[in-house]
Amino acid sequence: MTQVPPVPASALAARCPQCGTAIPPGARSCHACHALVHADRLKQLAETARAAASAGDVSAQLEAWRIALELLPPDSSQHRIIGDRVRSLSRSLSDAAAPAAASAADRADGAKKTWGGGGAIGAAALVLWKFKAIGLFLLTKGKLLVLGLSKGTTFFSMLAALGVYWAIWGWKFALGFVLSIYIHEMGHVAAMRRYGLQATAPMFIPGFGAFIRMKQHPATAQEEARIGLGGPIWGLGAAAACFLIYTTTQQPFWAALTHAGAMINLFNLMPIWQLDGDHAFKALNRTERWLATGAVAIMLLLTGEGLLVLIGILAVVQAFREAPNAEGDRTALIQFAGLIIALALLMKMPVPGLP
Amino acid sequence: MDDLQFERADFGAAPVAVTCTGCHQPIAGDYYDVNGKPFCAACTSAIRQAHGDSAGAAAFPRALGAGLGAGAVGSALYYIVEKISGYQLAIIAIAVGFLVGRAVRWGTGGRGGLVYQLLAVALTYTAIAFSWLPFVLEHNQEGFAIGDLIPLTTFMIGLPIRIGLESPFTLVVIGIGLWEAWKFTAPVPLAVAGPFTTAPPPVGLPPVPVVPPVPPAAP
Fold first, then answer.
1. How many CB pairs under 8 A join A and B?
2. How many domains does chain B have?
3. Could you give the CA distance from residue A300 to residue A207 in angstroms, rounded to a whole number?
């Protein structure tokens, strides 16, 4: 009989409340009677998820079930059933974008029909409704942007990054650049919150950008694509806002900030490593990958932007590789292509002082 | 979902004995927890022995060769990217660290260790330094003689530091590249706990609750 020296007495302290068998640290169930170690917490989470389901809050349901998955043995039937539920809820959120857009259009159409006879009054009501929607959007997202700064790691690493960029470019541009990166990262955070996914707060690394580490794996390829492209979509919003200010004020500072914002977001669309483009490509099937490559090629021909050469080469490599998600994701394709077009055009905008 | 119970894990059959992750045999008595998985005493002993073994005499040259090859690919990558895109992307230093780290780890048969970590870091730094060589050669119109080899090498080795002092961005990115190489070649820790028993303890030993009991609600 092989002799193995006994180790950590402390490890023997935990015993199964059902049968008294010693439970190794980190085990999720008793090896002898299969009693769940985190039974009470699991019951609480199930209750939270059920309450969220009654309230129609899919994000809260996802959040509770995802935490439950981490407390269950991976080979148990409970893990499999909850895993299926998480995937199903995640799909319902991923597919929700198109119906939501359709419903908004219907509501706008309805507003037109109702107020059509009133002419100018109807048009004004429609404009007001749209402003209300935009206002609500800005309020909720603005709240998230402010809340993000309450995290110590984000705030202090952001200050450090600001200090480094300040030394090189001056405070004004440094502040704009850091905010552009911050808005990009908060786009990921917003998408992750929507899917109830746990993640660290954004952390800035001067010269490198910033990153967020996910504590849980996305349930589906579509979910991963939405989270991956959430950053560049918000980043595009920031760059477009700078562009609008530039067109109004004609100050070169805003043109330079537009260019820098567009560049960091375009760079992130490279389908490689941990970059956002890679997350998007995981959801695309082979045909969609070629269509995305086509969009990159067209924009390269139109703008001659060097980054598009790299994105195009990597996209071709990805298109030749086997696509794990055969069903594809049309929304991810449209978002990726749209981002490529918009960001490439913003980068093409001439910046006074730049060749 | 409503009928899910959270008292016991359901594995689809009646409770069975713990199975050893190594030999897949049911464990009747004592078992060990190795990196979170149950192993029988014999398999645990074998794992401990294998973990203590060195990677072998052939491992170092293999790791060196693979690391040099990966470093050369990484250096070439930097030049190619600059040529086709017009951007000098310092972020490629991270890719170099990744490539070299993976290659050295492969050379050691997945074991890693301090010597290999130092090797991977040195190769990554050298690869990053020499990725600027084509640009240096392009800018020197007079050309180089054999006698310039040593001064040129010394110049190239010191170049990342010189560039880094002027551009903190580059220095940070190079640091991340070196960290990647260091991380990939780190030895895999072996956490063994136990022995544990698959049988319940004798009657009379009070069970220790894992989760503190929730106090009953006030009536």
1. 172
2. 2
3. 26
What does the pLDDT look like over A211-221, one tens digit per residue? 898 999 999 99
Specify the higher pLDDT residue, B204 or A213: A213
Q: Which residues in chain B touch residue A76, judged by CB atoms under 8 angstroms apart?
A: 9-11
Q: How many angstroms separate the CA of residue B206 from the nearest CA in chain A?
A: 7
Backbone angles phi, psi at A319, to 5 degrees: -65, -30
Q: Could you tell me which chain A residue has the CA closest to the CA of B205?
A: A20
Residue B44 lies in a domain: yes
Distance CA A54, CA A52 (A): 5
pLDDT tens-place string over residues B28-40: 778 888 887 888 8
- Helix A221-249 with A330-348: angle, nearest 10 deg: 30
The owner of tokens 């567009």 is A262
Q: B197 lies in a domain?
A: no
Q: What six digits make up the tokens of A273?
A: 């490593």
User: Which residues are CB-neighbours of A153 under 8 A, at least 6 positions away?
Assistant: A200, A201, A202, A203
Task: Give a yes or no: residue B106 inside a domain.
Answer: yes
Single pTM value for the model: 0.77
Q: Rounded to whole angstroms, how far apart are CA atoms A194 and A93?
A: 8
| Judgement on whether residues B29 and B96 belong to the same structural domain of the protein | no
Q: Are residues A190 and A326 in the same domain?
A: yes
B192 touches chain A (CB under 8 A): yes
Residues 307-326 of A with CB under 8 A from B: 307, 309-310, 313
Q: Tell me, yes or no, whether A355 lies in a domain.
A: no
Q: Could you give the number of structural domains in chain A? A: 2
Query: Do residues B22 and B129 both lie within one domain?
Result: no
A78, A328, B4, B71 from A43: Cα distances, Å: 12, 36, 10, 52
Structural domain boundaries enclosing B27: 18-53
ipTM attached to this prediction: 0.72
The 10s digit of each residue's pLDDT in A208-264 is 788 898 999 999 999 999 999 999 999 999 999 999 999 999 999 999 999 999 999
B105 domain residue, yes or no: yes
Smallest Cβ–Cβ distance between A206 and the set B9, B91, B172 belongs to B172
Provide, as residue numbers in chain A, all residues whose Cβ is less than 8 Å from the Cβ of B15. 32-34
Verify that B38 and B141 share a domain, yes or no: no
Query: Which residue range(s) make up the domain with A257?
Result: 149-348
Whether A262 and A306 have beta carbons less than 8 Å apart is answered as no
Terminal-to-terminal C-alpha distance of chain A? 77
Q: Is residue A253 part of a domain?
A: yes
- Please indicate, yes or no, if residue A15 is contained in any of the structural domains: no
Q: Do residues B31 and B117 both lie within one domain?
A: no
Query: What spatial distance separates the first Cα and last Cα of chain B, rounded to whole Å?
Result: 30
pLDDT at A113 over 60: no
Contact yes or no for A173/A257 (Cβ under 8 A):
yes
A11/B172 Cβ within 8 A: no
* Statement to judge: residues B86 and B152 lie in one domain: yes
* Residue A292, in any domain of the structure: yes
Share of chain B above pLDDT 70, in %: 85
Cα–Cα separations (whole angstroms), residue A166 to A226, A254, A262, A353, B214: 33, 16, 20, 19, 53
Do residues A214 and A251 make contact, with C-beta atoms less than 8 angstroms apart? no
Q: How far is A178 from chain B (nearest CA, A)?
A: 14
